[in-house]
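Still learning. Show one?

>
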Amino acid sequence: MTEEERLILLREQLAEVIKAISAILGGAQEYRIGTRSIKRPDLGLLYEERSRLEREIRAIEDGGGIFRLAYFEGR
């Protein structure tokens, strides 16, 4: 998978997480259709996943690597 494809996938996942957060905030944490019951993930977990996805997207957009330049002033 190329970096561009990875970025597209991460953005799609982020959009889904944001939709799920919005649905929960709108009162749709759990609902029933006929005999089926659907429960959305915990809001806290969704916030954590949103943060993780945003960090990954930022890392790719900012250069893709895990290494960053740091300057330490001498002693």
